[in-house]
Amino acid sequence: MTASRRTPGRRPGGPDTRGEILLAARESFADKGFAATSIRAVARQAEVDAALVHHYFDSKEELFVQAMSLPLDPRQVAARILDGPREELGRRIVTVFLGVWESDEGQQRMKAMLRSVVTSDDVARLMREGMTSMILQPVSQLLDVPDAMLRVSLIAGHLIGMALTRYVVELEPVASADLSTLVDRMGPAIQSYVDG
């Protein structure tokens, strides 16, 4: 019986190939950022063929979501926000955003992500690039106005402030207010950014 020889080229998938790809992706996203990371670069770093990366992950965005262990899929968030009339966009944004925070698991994971963002420049850069690509840009395209990115960034600032106030600082009465009250109060404020 002859020993099998390894053929030249990328190695095939092994028992933890997916995990190795995620590790390589995490390192690449951390070193280069979201925009400069490519599927091919991740494949090279993981020493697999790019087709194998595509086998496990549909896109770079999917790879980012999985590699960063995000508590939500930003593409699904954007889809839910964009699904409906423009005049109700403010309410939808608030409803979707706070809905992510309302479950115990969601709140725990979002708090961890928020704390990581404010304590690490690298994590902040990654989240900024990833969220801009997957949420802020699609929403700004819907607005279709010259200052759309400014408006969407103001919305993001408003929502992050609410998350800190309600879920981290737990400032009353915001912390114990019911969700429908917050949506009713915040929806028009967010809509004012949409309408300019």
Automatic annotation (TrEMBL):
Protein name per UniProt: TetR family transcriptional regulator
Pfam families (alphabetical): TetR_C_16, TetR_N
PANTHER family: HTH-TYPE TRANSCRIPTIONAL REGULATOR RUTR, TRANSCRIPTIONAL REGULATORY PROTEIN
Keyword DNA-binding: yes
Chain residues forming the annotated DNA-binding region: 38-57
Gene Ontology molecular functions: DNA-binding transcription factor activity; transcription cis-regulatory region binding
InterPro entries recorded: Homeodomain-like_sf, HTH-type_TetR-like_transc_reg, HTH_TetR, Tet_transcr_reg_TetR-rel_C_sf, TetR_C_16
The organism of origin for this protein: Kribbella rubisoli
Residues annotated as domain HTH tetR-type: 15-75
Keywords of the record: DNA-binding
